[in-house]
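Bench log. Compound arrived from synthesis this morning; before running ITC I wanted a structural hypothesis for how 2-oxoglutaric acid sits in the protein. Inputs:
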Amino acid sequence: MVEPGEEAMRQLFKFYRRRCPAPDLGGVLDLREAARHPDTVYRTRLEASALDDEAQRVGLQPASQWRAYGLNGYPGFIFIVNPFLPSGQRFWVRQCLKLYPRKPNVCNLDAHDPQRDDVWASGIRAGKSPREPRSLLEKLRWVTLGYHYNWDTKRYSAHHRSSLPVEVSALAAILAAACGFPTFCAEAAILNFYRADSALGPHVDESELDLSQPLVSFSFGCSAVFLLGGLRREDPALPIFMHSGDVMVMSGESRLRYHAVPRILDSGGTLPECLREPSCPREAAGGEAGGEAGGHAEPDPLARGDPGASATEPDAVSAADWEVCARYLRESRVNVTVRQVAAPGEAVPNTEPPPLHQNAAAIVTQQGGYNDGDAHNHDEEGHRHSKEDTG
Ligand SMILES: O=C(O)CCC(=O)C(=O)O
């Protein structure tokens, strides 16, 4: 299994990516059982007491209930065990699948078919006729929001930007402030959509101009094995479970650590009750699932008073929408990593973005013909990997 000369991160990545035989997950750190690892894990205090009302509005539990941990030897790395309300998780899943793939946001499917159909509408159709070829929703691998990350140049450009959804900025600001970054200003987000056989190779996120601000990352759906490495590829890595709703903040000394996602786990044992179909308690009355799929803008959830929901929670997900989300989540994971690109007053250069390249994406799948070896060799500099699977 271990080849001489291979860097430690890559060895571990191959180990957890292996299908046959499946790897032993006994060595993966589970922060839900932090007390079992007193040598590795310590409880960390958050700066969140004043934020409870705001937190609930973006689907978070009151900050006093969050459990946050640091890891010995990893200064600046903060892990918050699922701080989301059940309705909050459903809200964010719906936003990620239904709204954020829409234009003017950018996604992996644009390179192949700029006139593409609405991703959400294709997900609805797939549910109605299961024998249809893979839907666009299943082929979705990444979406960029705000400053659109250019996978070829690995840069952001002032010319290539759309507005970041207000709820994304609000959520990231609350999480960052709680972790000691009260001035964090969300300017870009990359959403990663993983299917059961997807992986994200080892990389460092270093394209942002201001590296003093953290990466704020949260995920929903199937659990994953996340590898937290060192500042060099050859450094050892720590495998950590990332379950639905968990939040990671990488800052300070840990901002430029290598990290990777070698494995998505079976939903069987890992999807939380609140994401299991078909239950969607206290949901809004759902109309036809396709009703809003034709490109109409969704009302701003933070500005809308939903009669079916508490005044301080985001709007509830309709039964029809939830049906599509729940079907997707059976074998998927969605990650959102939010970034501040530049320091206040710092200009992001205007670099004319080259056309999106055919091989431009973060996630590789075995189904798409890539194995873990390809995923890594692609990027000698250790930046994000550039491979695309659109099926
Ligand atoms: O999916 C994850 O948990 C990690 C995502 C990531 O590393 C990235 O977007 O740079």
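What the model suggests: Residues 190, 192, 200, 205, 217, 219, 226, 242, 259, 261, 335, 337 surround 2-oxoglutaric acid (CB under 6 Å). The CA atoms of residues 129 and 288 lie 16 Å apart.
ITC booked for Thursday regardless.
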